[in-house]
Amino acid sequence: MMEELEDAFITFIRTQQKSLYRLAYSYTKNEQDALDVVQDSIQKGWLALKKLTNREQMKSWFYTILVHTAIDLLRKQKRIELIGDESLLQLSEQDTYQNLDLQQALHHLPLQLREVVVLRYFEDLKIEDVAHILAIPLSTAKSRLYKALKLLKIELETEEN
Amino acid sequence: MNDDKLKKLHAQYKDVPIPEELETIIEKNLQRPLKKRKRKLPIFSISAAAAVVLFTVGLNTNPAMAKSLADVPVIGPVVQVLTFTKYEMVKDEYTAEIQVPQISGSSADIEALNEKYAEEGKTLYEQFKADIEEMEAGNMAVNSGYVIETDTDELLSFGRYVEVTVVSSSTVMKYTTIDKKAETVITLPSLFKDDRYLDIISRYIEDELRNRMIETEGSDMYWIGGTEYHDESFGVFEGISPDQNFYITEEGKLVMSFDVYEIAPGFMGLVTVEIPTELLQDVLVSNKYIK
Fold it and tell me: Contact A46/B33, CB-based, under 8 Å?
């Protein structure tokens, strides 16, 4: 059983390596740190693999590890500033985003808003999985996503809720 | 996804260049972890070309060596650690520098160690040559040698390290402690009356590392439960084993050492914890080594 699970893990990492790297890079913004995050996450994955009971959840399980590892690294390098949700949701477009192009605007979003956009739209995860990976309530995930899109001046035809 | 702006952002996200080394790193980390505590010299799987080899037998005279020799009094302890053999290779992007230590002394314990070091040094070098044969691109460096932690009239504690660099580096350290008078190797269990030390040391390490995490608000990270900083579902440190790495300081303090990934994420590097002697006093055989 364990061996099969290990094989599935190996296949998952091998086939998803570019996605994993991009996701790590979206946090670290530099190549060396992103590679370190991927590497550390795989090592943690090996340690935690026996606790993964449902193989269907490999992706969201591993993304959780990777996101934690990336945030740990940023925290270690003191490059992170987490903001309370109350202040997050009070950010206004006038604050910093006026003269930026779209990509710069994304990069200037507070981490907690940016990661929701990255996971939901670029990694194509369900909002429920995003909430699970980030260990936040579903309602918080939705409000952060909504706020992020608003700051980026992106209007969707169909809203998340 | 039904908005042009999002599509554009998504395209830019996908445009992040993927470093060439990614695949090598992934493969290196996908090797099933070696069975716990049976750690061998690291195995690498990589690429390229024949090589220029410098093979030096005898005591060599590089600056690092000169420094470690300078720490050894000329008259005094008989048991010393010296560089016996050195393997070196520099070829394109590949470099290897492997120093094989040898301990002077004539006991069976010391002879066995010397034989083991010679064998491991050779194996490491052969492995490196084999790996770069397979490697197509990229760079790799292997650096192996030793550091002396303690050298007193009674004790010699030194660590042998193997550092492998493929983009980022990882280091494995293995300590040895020798009673210089008796010319015997001191093992962890030999210091204690019975098994109780395992638990005493393990619990102290947990408390100590948990405190370090709390004091640094999580910028130091260890795989220890009980704080908000490490998610226990990823696995936690369970305890030391009788062959756990250790050394003894000049002041006679026991220091436990953990390799990269053994007790903490890779970015923490090697981790050491000094154990207060008073905690061990009841279970120590004597205060001959540990004071």
Answer: yes
- Banded model confidence at residue B24, pLDDT cuts 50, 70, 90: confident
| pLDDT, position B168 | 62
- Cβ contact (<8 Å) for A21 and B234? no
The distance in angstroms from the start CA to the end CA of chain A is 40
Q: Flag whether residue A25 sits within 8 Å of chain B, measured between CB atoms.
A: yes
> Computed over its alpha carbons, how large is the radius of gyration of chain A?
16
In chain A, CATH 1.10.1740.10 covers 1-80
pTM of the complete model: 0.56
**By CA distance, what is A27's nearest residue in B?**
B13
CB neighbours of A107 closer than 8 A, spacing ≥ 6?
A29, A114
Out of B10, B16, B168, closest to residue A121 by CB: B10
Give chain A's residues under pLDDT 70.
1, 81, 92-100, 155-161
Are residue B42 and residue B66 in the same domain, yes or no?
A: yes
When divided into structural domains, chain B yields a total of: 2
For the domain covering A83-155, report its CATH number. 1.10.10.10
ipTM score of complex? 0.80
In whole angstroms, give the CA distance from residue B275 to residue B271. Answer: 13
Domain assignment of residue B171, given as a range: 24-185
Residues of chain B neighbouring A72 (CB-CB closer than 8 A): 218, 221, 229, 265, 267
pLDDT digits (tens, 9 = 90+) for B163-208: 877 766 677 888 999 998 888 899 999 999 999 999 999 999 999 9
B40 has a chain A CB within 8 A of its CB:
no
Looking at B153, B185, B217, the residue that finishes a domain is B185
Q: Do A25 and B9 touch (CB under 8 A)?
A: no
- Pick B267's closest partner by Cβ from A22, A40, A118: A40
Residue B220 maps to which CATH number?
Answer: 3.90.640.20
Ordered DSSP codes for A62-106: HHHHHHHHHHHHHHHTT------HHHHHH--TTTT-TT--HHHHH
User: Average of pLDDT values for B21-41?
Assistant: 65
A157 shares contact with chain B (CB less than 8 Å): yes
Do B129 and B60 have their domain in common?
yes
* Single-letter code of the amino acid located at B69: L
- Indicate the residue type of A152: L
What's the CATH number of domain A1-80, 3.30.450.20, 1.10.287.130, 1.10.1740.10, 1.20.1300.10? 1.10.1740.10
Mean pLDDT (whole number) for B82-109: 82
pLDDT at B147: 85
